[in-house]
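I hope you will forgive my troubling you with a question about protein structure. Could you please explain, in whatever detail you think fit, how the structure tokens follow from the sequence? Thank you for your consideration; the sequence and its tokens are set out here.
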Amino acid sequence: MHNDENEEHWTDHAICRGADPDLFFPIGYSAEVLREQMDAAKAVCANCPVKAECLAWALRVGEPDGIWGGTTPEERRYLRRTADAPARRRLPVIVVRGDASESEHASAA
């Protein structure tokens, strides 16, 4: 794909463009003051016209820090895990010697 210098990019339309980056990169996500900062950043994202593109980018590159597309790093890890997780299937039951009761051993012999 040809990437022209004049071609627009989703980041050109991000409403966080020009905002204080510290708002989107709290030093933690659990302390009350940091939760307030995270909520403020997410409020900016909530009104952004390129929120979906931002989140898709952060998921694709595995962005480990900051608020991207209205999500925290933990929320993105969860989204990646659930999206990439293979379909679950029941595993066969494996009986290890000593696990079964004496009557089960007797009937198996």
